[in-house]
Amino acid sequence: MKKQKIVVIATVILALIASAFATSNLFAQKKFEGYWENETITKTSTKFTGTKTKIEHEKIYYKAGKMKQVNLTDNTISIIRLDKGLSWTLNPKEKTYIEIRFEDVQRNMKALRGEMAQKMNQLSAEEKEQMKKMMGDKFNAMFGEQTMPTVSFKVTGKKKTISGYNCKQVILSLNNEPMMEMWLTNKYSFGNDFLKMYEKTGLIKGKIPNSKELQGFPIYTKVDMNLGIGKSVSETTIKKIVPQRISDKEFELPAGYTKQESPMPF
After folding, report:
1. Based on the number of CB atoms within 10 Å of its own CB, is 172 exposed (0-12), middle (13-18) or buried (19 or more)?
2. Edge-to-edge strand ranges of the sheet holding 76-81
3. pLDDT in tens, 195-241
4. Is the pLDDT of residue 22 over 50?
5. pLDDT tens digits along 135-194
6. Which of the residues 130, 195, 215, 218 has an alpha carbon 20 to 30 A from that of 259?
């Protein structure tokens, strides 16, 4: 269960990072306000669990500085509040929520990294060597010195229509390793909201290329991750986009919910 949670967290982080890059304030059109619906298909393969497929459907409300993700598959809700510097994860069934402050994310990630390194030092030389062989170049990324990642994009020139929108293909790479395929429409913009979040949390520190070619709203994204212990491929397709005014009340905590401590350091 723990391994599955880590895979899900890593996939979500990478998907949001790519979405942030693709929808930065490089373009002049009016910021989007409204909601969209999407479908995400995630296939995870590891030596421990075999291959598993998960299909999720979401409805996402967005207004400048605020986002609410309603997972229609497991009935959970996430609210991101840039103005408050935090996010809430709600469990409507239990009427509970978990609060995560952006300023705590980087500190907790460093603590987790230190804990993992400590456990690694407790292994025998033979066990460490087996771990290195299993994880390949991901071993140093997790247990070695941290380095600033190089973020790069390639506009391939390929175009096609997805969910009724004319899209162009962009490939995102970290340290010259392809990580995500995106198909963007230039009809909508989010401004630089998500980039602000990543600056505050330190989830990624690489220099972001400044190019007008990166304009657009990601209608389709495919994240292909080598996790060392296996592989995760996540495909998200936006099925519907509805521009409209969204009430600020949509992004507030519902009355009667009880706060719980986060079970994960993120």
Report:
1. buried
2. 151-162, 165-174, 177-185, 217-226, 230-243, 34-46, 50-63, 66-71, 76-81, 86-91, 96-101, 258-260
3. 555 555 554 555 555 556 666 788 999 988 776 678 889 999 999 99
4. no
5. 555 555 555 555 555 667 888 999 999 999 999 998 888 777 788 898 988 888 765 555
6. 195
Output the pLDDT for position 83.
82
What is the distance between the alpha carbons of residues 224 and 180, in angstroms, rounded to a whole number? 6
The label of the residue with tokens 């979405």 reads 19
* Spatial contact of 82 and 193, defined as CB atoms under 8 Å apart: yes
Cα atoms found within 13 Å of the Cα of residue 251, Cβ hemisphere only: 24
